[in-house]
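[STRUCTURE TOKENS]
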Amino acid sequence: MQDHSDHQPSPAAEPNGASVDTFVEHRRLLFGTAYNLLGSVADAEDILQEAWLKWDSVDHGSVAHPKAYLVRTVTNLALNRLTSARAKRETYIGPWLPEPLVTAPNAAEETEMADTVSTAMLVVLETLSPTERAVFVLREVFGFSHADIGGFLDRPEATVRQIARRARSHVQARRPRFDADDAARSEITEKFIAACHGGDLNALMALLAPDVTLWNDGGGIVTAARRPLYGPDHVARWLLGVMAKPTSADVRLEPAVVNGEASIVGVVGDYRIGALTYDIHEGRIENIRFQVNPEKLGGIQETGDPTS
């Protein structure tokens, strides 16, 4: 898999070794910050490029705290892009979902990347204002102090505390329910894959919660459901219908760890054509998010698109 968190600075800047080393030291944190703020792997990579250019051109002797400077730079670049991205989503075709990111099975043992939030949480974060999202991510995900965040955003510490409290309350009210441990989640994932491959409607319906909802993001580029699907019967029949299409003959469903959770990817050859993430509550699957927009799949590839 391409490690998006290990994005390298421009080769043109290599002569400045200290500058490169400092940036590389913090790049996982910087990528995680940008990704959690934007929900986009591609945009996060662009932000890192922009941040590198700013860092490489600054007088490093005047920067007392490089880590704080870099996080501040990435945060503000991401906030600018988030504002423009939300305007574009008003004309987005069909449901909008964040870009999935395949993470290592032992992601919990990594440092900053262990804090990459679930796809479900990224959807919840979309309901916050850009400033609320920045404060929540920096405080709740990466553990920065209110004073530090105030410095990043040019806001008084007291104001940041108020924003943090409001954002936390908002997220808690909308946080998806889930109660499955890793072993249970993996078992349900395996049964889901078997039911889809076997075309077993009853087995698939038995895995779905009574209030299951499926969102499918094709971005108007590939065929996808343009409205949410509701209920076990509707969702199961739609999923099996997709699997039964001639164009799906070569598709394999495989387990993968996406945004730190056991999930499913659709694979043709060596190329991953979609990611399916979901919540599990009381032993059943609910809130299914099916990402198939080819422009949003860079974060789940292992070898890249063979046609590129």
